[in-house]
């Protein structure tokens, strides 16, 4: 697909030749994640996280399908069925802890994967479609994770469902009707639990489908790399297999190490104690908080406490959804032709501030709503929007990038102290023209 | 064009947040939130270092059995244990015959149906039964407990922050409100029927002190049954009821981590080997 020097699949076994004629599935795999996919040779460990996210999805589907064999999606029995899994199903505790912590691991690697894309400009031309599909996957994941958290029917499940579906009631006029329609009742109950279970089982397969599109779209321009400079020739790339399968092996190992530490030694670290209390519509928990991966968005929601034309609640809901939806526009908000923030001194600072900002929002999302935290959250939420909608578009206009390396190979050789005949850093203008020309 | 539109939208969000921020700051200055009594006088439980804590933690079966005895003789009068079965007791060292006897002699019988008349009835417990609840339903439980509901104990240590330590601290934490409390919060009171306990979230708990004297339980293994000892033992038992597979989990975890470490080592070697001739 991507580059003319990509190796072609040549089946040697008669059986594989036969299969290749009838259904070239091995050919597809070879070209997608095998030796037939040329990849820049300078990828760092941040490029492991796509594979890790794929692995996390597989883990979630396998453990989830098995859990569904023992789970009862009935509001009167869901909590007890989860306890039966924990106590009486063979290795049921392992399946459930793996699934619950697997969701956290999945979101964690996806956040790092998104952060990688933000820093190295992987959302820019010619990879806009890869980015759009990625944001779609992220939205589907958030919906799936939320509905999955409702299934054990603990206190946080129930009240989380109550709060999240309550967002829709902020819509003027029709909001309340939409909320009731979504829940199948006036409050979360059996109808809501059953439809959440149905969708929680369905959406991961939708995610898997969009991941196929995500990888397909990626293979047309090929992978980005830490310099953000385009591939110029064969010397810039290596075949995905064995080079990156070997490197991904190390990443997979470290991922499993952290995952196992969570499952076996601290399985409830990221959970909330209240979810071990069965759902009770008559008793509101003192402090309703979502899972850690939603906390920054929850903080944005809570930060809107003033009415201005629209009611505060509607602003909060608009801002919360907007904070994710604005990512769809990122390829057009950032107009700089330079991809990697390594060569964009101002953006680099802005991105470090953004990272700290999101961490602050995460803290505020889970913290008590005392004045200090609310003030911190409001400032951090303002910076979040300012970053994407104001700072980034203006930086990409005014910033002077530092000199880009001539090519990926030149960058690699320069790093190792050697010089190659073709190695000379282009002037900034040359590099800009060059990258823009390729981008178009 | 995109830049202009995005700047306007961004400015709108920032402006509304600035308004909200102004409101927060103004309220903070004009109406500072008074310190809450829970915030000042609530205490965090001390660590009781159970054998099951830590990476290599394993239940101390004798301690868990003592805790079971406390549960049986004290707690089970009010608290149910509905997700635990008598058969589970074999995992803390009781023999099948002992479990059969424990079930058979349990003070509360298992709800059942009279096979001849179809009327509700009760029968003796067998090992496959869950622990029967002391009250028929929530209304009965509240009626007998000054309108408070004794929570089920199956998951209590996982359903409370810092569960095992919390159980120990709560049971041993009953006391008179400190003098400073009455001075700083004159409006605070412990209504009749409630009990002051600084480890409880709102400081006034409905449960009367369950352990009132040393020696309330006579341990079969001869351990001296001080209040502190009984509280520790019942905390150990309730850690087990919430997480009965903890021993297996820790053992499997050590094996899994060692296995994955070997995998990482081999994967690292393979990675170095594949890339040895290529600068990157």
From TrEMBL, chain A:
Heme b b562 binds at residues 99, 200. One of its GO terms (molecular function) is oxidoreductase activity. It is found in: Membrane. Residues 15-227 form the Cytochrome b/b6 N-terminal region profile domain. A ubiquinone binds at residue 219. Keywords: Electron transport, Heme, Iron, Membrane, Metal-binding, Respiratory chain, Transmembrane, Transmembrane helix, Transport. The chain crosses the membrane at residues 45-74, 94-118, 130-151, 157-175, 196-217, 250-271, 315-333, 345-363, 375-395. Binds 2 heme groups non-covalently. GO terms for cellular component: respiratory chain complex III. Pfam families: Cytochrom_B_C (PF00032), Cytochrome_B (PF00033). Residues 230-406 form the Cytochrome b/b6 C-terminal region profile domain. Heme b b566 binds at residues 113, 214. Its cofactor is heme; heme b. SUPFAM superfamilies: a domain/subunit of cytochrome bc1 complex (Ubiquinol-cytochrome c reductase) (SSF81648), Transmembrane di-heme cytochromes (SSF81342). It is a multi-pass membrane protein. GO terms for biological process: respiratory electron transport chain. Belongs to the cytochrome b family. Component of the ubiquinol-cytochrome c reductase complex (complex III or cytochrome b-c1 complex), which is a respiratory chain that generates an electrochemical potential coupled to ATP synthesis. The main subunits of complex b-c1 are: cytochrome b, cytochrome c1 and the Rieske protein. PANTHER family: CYTOCHROME B. This is Cytochrome b. It comes from Sphingomonas oligophenolica.
From TrEMBL, chain B:
The keyword Lipoprotein does not apply. Coiled coil: none annotated. Residues 112-132 are annotated as: Disordered. Keywords: Heme, Iron, Membrane, Metal-binding, Transmembrane, Transmembrane helix. One of its GO terms (cellular component) is membrane. The keyword Transmembrane applies. It holds the Pfam family Cytochrom_C1. The chain crosses the membrane at residues 251-271. This is Cytochrome c1. It comes from Sphingomonas oligophenolica.
């Amino acid at each position: 697909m991507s580059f003319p020097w990509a190796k072609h699949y040549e089946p040697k076994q008669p059986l594989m030749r036969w299969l290749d004629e009838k259904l070239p599935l091995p050919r597809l795999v070879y070209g997608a994640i095998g030796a037939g996919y040329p990849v820049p040779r300078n990828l760092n460990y941040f490029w492991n996280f796509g594979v890790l996210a794929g692995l996390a999805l597989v883990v979630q589907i396998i453990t989830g399908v098995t859990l569904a064999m023992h789970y009862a999606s009935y509001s009167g029995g869901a909590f007890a069925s989860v306890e039966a899994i924990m106590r009486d199903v063979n290795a049921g505790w392992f399946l459930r802890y793996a699934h619950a912590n697997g969701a956290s691991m999945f979101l964690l690697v996806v956040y790092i994967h998104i952060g990688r894309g933000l820093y190295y400009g992987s959302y820019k031309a010619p990879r806009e479609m890869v980015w759009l599909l990625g944001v779609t996957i992220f939205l589907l994941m958030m919906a799936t994770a939320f509905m999955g958290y409702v299934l054990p029917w603990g206190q946080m499940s129930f009240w989380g469902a109550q709060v999240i579906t309550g967002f829709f009631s902020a819509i003027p006029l029709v909001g309340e009707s939409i909320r009731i329609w979504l829940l199948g009742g006036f409050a979360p109950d059996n109808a809501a639990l059953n439809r959440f279970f149905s969708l929680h089982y369905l959406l991961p397969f939708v995610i898997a489908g969009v991941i196929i599109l995500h990888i397909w779209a990626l293979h047309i321009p090929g992978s980005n790399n830490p310099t953000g400079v385009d591939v110029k020739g064969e010397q810039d790339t290596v075949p995905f297999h064995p080079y990156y399968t070997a490197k991904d092996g190390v990443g997979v190992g470290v991922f499993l190490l952290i995952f196992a530490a969570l499952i076996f030694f601290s399985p409830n670290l990221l959970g909330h104690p209240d979810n071990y209390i069965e759902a009770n519509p008559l008793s509101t928990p003192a402090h309703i908080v979502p899972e850690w991966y939603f906390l920054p968005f929850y903080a944005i929601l809570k930060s809107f406490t003033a009415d201005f034309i629209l009611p505060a609640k509607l602003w909060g809901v608009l801002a919360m959804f907007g904070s994710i939806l604005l990512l769809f526009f990122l390829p057009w908000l950032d107009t700089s032709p330079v991809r990697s923030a390594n060569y964009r001194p101002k953006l680099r600072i802005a991105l470090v501030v953004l990272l700290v900002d999101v961490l602050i929002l995460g803290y505020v999302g889970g913290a008590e709503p005392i004045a200090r935290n609310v003030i911190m959250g409001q400032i951090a939420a303002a910076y979040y929007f300012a970053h994407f909608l104001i700072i980034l578009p203006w930086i990409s206009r005014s910033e002077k990038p530092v000199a880009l390396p001539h090519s990926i190979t030149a960058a690699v050789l320069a790093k190792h102290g050697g010089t190659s005949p073709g190695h000379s850093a282009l002037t900034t203008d040359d590099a800009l023209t060059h990258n823009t020309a390729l981008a178009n | 064009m995109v830049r202009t539109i995005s700047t306007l939208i961004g400015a709108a969000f920032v402006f509304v947040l600035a308004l909200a921020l102004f409101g927060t700051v103004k309220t903070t200055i004009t109406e500072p939130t008074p310190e809450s009594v829970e915030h000042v006088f609530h205490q965090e439980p001390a660590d009781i270092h159970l054998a099951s804590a830590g990476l290599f933690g394993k239940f101390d079966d004798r301690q868990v059995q003592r805790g079971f005895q406390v549960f049986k003789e004290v707690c089970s009068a009010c608290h149910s244990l509905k997700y635990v079965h008598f058969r589970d007791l074999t995992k803390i060292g009781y023999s099948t015959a002992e479990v059969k006897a424990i079930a058979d002699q349990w003070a509360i019988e298992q709800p059942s149906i009279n096979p001849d008349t179809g009327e509700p009835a009760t029968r003796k417990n067998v090992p496959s039964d869950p622990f029967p609840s002391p009250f028929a339903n929530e209304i009965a439980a509240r009626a007998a407990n000054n309108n408070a509901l004794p929570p089920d104990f199956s998951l209590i240590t996982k359903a409370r922050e810092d569960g095992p330590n919390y159980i120990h601290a709560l049971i041993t934490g009953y006391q008179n409100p400190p003098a400073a409390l009455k001075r700083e919060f004159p409006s605070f009171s412990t209504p009749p029927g409630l009990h002051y306990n600084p480890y409880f979230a709102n400081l006034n708990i409905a449960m009367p002190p369950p352990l009132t004297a040393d020696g309330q339980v006579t341990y079969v293994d001869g351990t001296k049954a001080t209040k502190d000892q009984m509280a520790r033992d019942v905390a150990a038992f309730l850690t087990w009821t919430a997480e009965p597979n903890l021993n297996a989990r820790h053992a499997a975890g050590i094996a899994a981590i060692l296995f994955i470490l070997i995998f990482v080592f081999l994967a690292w070697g393979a990675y170095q080997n594949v890339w040895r001739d290529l600068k990157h």
